[in-house]
Amino acid sequence: xxxxxxxxSGAGRGIGRxxxxxxxxxxxxxxxxxxxxxFEWGQNDPNVVQGKMDSSDPEDYKRAIEDFMxxxxxxxxxxxxxxxxAVIGEFEAQKFEDEKRLFDVNVMGYINGIHAALPYLKNTxxxxxxxxxxxxxxxxxxxxxxxxxxxxxxxxxxxxxxxEFMKYGIRIIDVNPLxxxxxxxxxxxxxxxxxxILKTLGLKLTVxxxxxxxxxxxxxxxxxxxxxxxxxxKQARALSHQHFLPNAAPRxxxxxxxxxxxxxxx
Length: 266
What we know:
There is one protein chain. The protein is of the alpha/beta class. The chain has a single domain, classed as 3-Layer(aba) Sandwich (Rossmann fold), CATH 3.40.50. The protein has helices at residues 14-25, 58-69, 96-122, 145-164, 183-189, 196-201, 207-217, 234-244, 249-265; strands at 5-9, 29-34, 48-52, 78-81, 128-132, 171-177, 229-232. A seven-stranded parallel beta sheet has the order 3-2-1-4-5-6-7, with helices on both faces.
């Protein structure tokens, strides 16, 4: 099979849907899977294979990958770990079951995906893994404490596996937007939460902004790049540049920025 392939988790709506639609439009065979199994797009697109999958269940993720591989002759060029949930609001007000669910999906779901896809990625020259993360992985974010912790975990996973998977020729990166206008975020905000930093910075990014970075980052000319963390938008890039400079001062500046934005939003 010569057609390139990509598997996208959480592809029913939001960022995952937009990514899946873009890659299908560009000629990839796309495996679009979501927990609900409900899609409002792509049913008649010959470049799209749709299915139901709970990414937090390792056996279900394995089954979904194997299902898609039946359509690709075992070829998997790109795995895009995207499925996620949010827990918004002050830490002390959160429910344990919601926090656990967040880690099951946002961290273990990504780990499950990599385990399930690895045999096929290893057998596909130039294979890539893209973890959809967040600028909350650059600095601990108030009112998103558990979400931020999960994204820190994904950043660490990306950095570690980038080294481990060199022997297989597999490239791994993460993509880090700040706040994106999605149904998931808007539904959480409808519950009445007030996030000072969000009120200050606003919902300026769209799903297409994230998709554009994913598409650019995975092009052949970028595959030899040593860049692991791809920030989306000016605000995220500012946080990224401050965090990764090799001294302690930028870290202090990042924290000061977060505190200042929180106070402005009150």
